[in-house]
Amino acid sequence: MAGHLSVFEIIGPPMVGPSSSHTAGACRIGWAARNILGQPPLQAEVLLHSSFLATGAGHGTPEALVAGLLGFEPDSERLKDALQIARDNGMDVVFGEVDLGPQAHPNSVRLNLAGASATLSLTASSIGGGSVQIDEMNGFPVSIPGTLSALLMSHRDTPGFLARVTAVLACVEINVAGIRTSRRERGAEALTVIEIDGHFPAEVLTLLRSVPAISRLTILPVLPGF
Amino acid sequence: MRYQFRTAAELLAHSEEHSLSIAELTIHAETETGSLAREEIVRKMLDYYQRMKDSVRRGLEITGRSRSGLSGGDSRRVLMHSKQDSVSVLGPVFERAIAYALAVLETNAAFGRIVATPTAGSAGIAPACLLIWQEERRASDEATSAGLFTAAGLGKIIGHGACFSGAQGGCQAEIGSACAMAAAAVCELDGGTPEQAINAAALALQNTLGLICDPIGGYVEAPCMMRNGLFGLHAFGASAISLSGVKSAVPFDEVVSALREVGNKMPRIYKETSEGGLATTPTGLRFKNARPKNGITSSE
Questions:
Q1: Are A226 and A149 in contact (CB under 8 A)?
Q2: Residues A80 and A110 occupy one common structural domain
Q3: Hey, are the CB atoms on A20 and B121 less than 8 Å from each other?
Q4: What are residue A123's phi and psi, to 5 degrees?
């Protein structure tokens, strides 16, 4: 494991039972997906892999994933009623199964979401103790643990892109903890994830919107409990 | 980065160099890398400790059975027994420690609020050990919650060297980790040196190696609940042995390596799949067949 673990990755999260990986981690994944989508999901296809599929029911995994999609945190006592609350709020949820292959963590899920004006496909795993990792986003491999605020940018792969973005971040005195760009091919669509220490000030989004080549920009806050 | 550690050897070297307890060193390490100030970190951990105590209290009030029927009212039964004449020769504290750990898991099974330490399935051990310690030593919440930093310090070493997930490393990764963390915590709270606290963790962890994750019906109840109840006592035992001056034959870092190795080689049927062990005994299968087939059917 890279970097240093926080004490609150070991002790915590505060959560409702019964399983840190199958309940709290699942809720965090749903929460992250809602925030990355940037709007309430209206339709959600939830595809469960391996252990999530096999033992999810007894652990409230479906409820927890949907609770996260509704914006509930892992210690919300409404988590167990999430499926009903989703129905009451007009969120259309469909469950299914998926085989993500032997390399995927047993506690993995793929979420296909649609909101009023955006869609998102995301694969994530719950790696133990409520810690999670986002493994894939819209076809791009990523590795986002959600322990730091992250800036997610869909953009065209152009020279000088990162220099412009980091210049903006430097102007507002943001300390970058990690950067990863993945692209399909040279000059094509790319996804850059920047993790930072602390929080993004509001003006940073306005500034970044002036950077050419960015097609979509979202901030994923630190996941609840970290 | 003066206070960071990924191994017990590094932890011990830093604690000697800076003359800090494990709890203090862990707080220093957190302020060095995290986004919270010292006071916020300490306050957050105190809040977590108080949430843990609430989860004990709430569990002791449960009288009905859980959704699965596998548990419910058990912590209360043990607590009542601790007050009766037939109490164990080891005394009421011994039984209360069991009751407290069971209580957290009962709260957990009832979809109640707990704090994963390090996981939900092992969340009863540290709260039970710390609450018993607090009651017996008549300590404040503030003083007792320092033990959670000791626990977290040892937990970080396990997290770096192995894992906490039953699905990846078996029950030893969950209960074993919780037990090692709690052993170090009560050892340090009782005045043990960093070396003694790490040694207590080594003793506790090595005694859980090989423990499989075989939850009946896939529920975090049996054998999880009793593993919490009984391994909480184990943590006290490891701490007492270490404080007496007895040393673990194998140092903590090597026990963590063994934990990882055993976890990697453990067959998949013993890793939270409910495809082996107690889960596939005739009794286990009755509960397995009674539950919804998978995550999909429960959503209908």
A1: no
A2: yes
A3: yes
A4: -115, 135
pLDDT of A202 > 90? The answer is no
β-strand partners of A119: A114
The pLDDT-based confidence of B35 (bands split at 50, 70, 90) is confident
Residue A111 lies in a domain: yes
Residues 131-160 of A with CB under 8 A from B: 131
CA–CA distance, A67 with A80 (Å, rounded to integer)? 8
CB interface of A with B, residues 107-136, below 8 Å? 107, 127-131
Q: What is the CATH number of the domain that holds A199?
A: 3.30.70.260
- Domain identity same for A154 and A132: no
Q: Which CATH class is domain B8-291?
A: mainly alpha
Question: How many CB atoms are closer than 10 A to CB B57?
Answer: 13
What are the chain B neighbours of A12 within 8 Å (beta carbons)? 48, 115-117
ipTM of the complex: 0.94
Q: Report the chain A residue with the minimal C-alpha distance to residue B68.
A: A58
In angstroms, rounded to a whole number, what is the distance separating the alpha carbons of residues B192 and A57? 43
Is residue B295 pLDDT above 50, yes or no? Answer: no
